[in-house]
Amino acid sequence: MLTIGLTGGIASGKTTVADLFAEFGVATIDADVAAREVVEPGTSGLQQIVDAFGPEVLDSAGALDRRKLRERVFADEKARERLEAILHPLIRARLLEQLDACRGPYAILIAPLLLETGLDALTDRVLVVDVPEDIQIQRVMQRDGSSEAQARAILAAQVSRTERLARADDVLDNTVSLRALRPQVEALHHRYTALATTQP
Q1: Which CATH number fits domain 1-26+106-200: 3.10.20.30, 3.40.50.720, 3.40.50.300, 3.10.580.10?
Q2: For residue 43, what is the enclosing H or E element?
Q3: Closest by CA position to 167, among listed 108, 135, 123
Q4: Which residue, 192, 32, 3, is CA-closest to 101?
Q5: pLDDT tens for each residue of 16-54
Q6: Which of 37, 54, 63, 127 could bond 170 through an S-S bridge, CB–CB 3.0 to 4.6 Å?
């Protein structure tokens, strides 16, 4: 089955685009959801994190305290690498399992860090949802109540817009209204369906 990797910088509108594809009956798989599933209480993923970082990364209910873990690894490169070494293989295996269960001509794999984590290797094409950086910063500040400095720090941790666009097979401009975005998604849906039926 044809697999389309859907990515874009923070607050570019990936969820909106994924929802539009879902309206056409396309299976969508979200790497962020998979990342939460592999560390749910009782999973080997959570146990590995506790073994690596100690029980203080758990909340009172025994679930992963994401904020504490984020604070712990954000400023420590080695700790971040250790966390990624645990999570990335688990997330990858979970996504492959979910893709395998999909039916239809093609599926969408939504991954904010598709290019940064090498998940694009699981896809046939990369679709980038694109907006200028000043719009991203504005949206992050409005959506999350972040300061401009925090928003810029998040952007700096992601692949640059230039690199993302250079690695895209398809680009969706999301500076437009939802009404103008829908026909762009519909055109891509027809294109991907056609591609899926002609690929070997």
Answers
A1: 3.40.50.300
A2: none
A3: 123
A4: 3
A5: 999 999 999 999 999 999 999 999 999 999 999 999 999
A6: 127
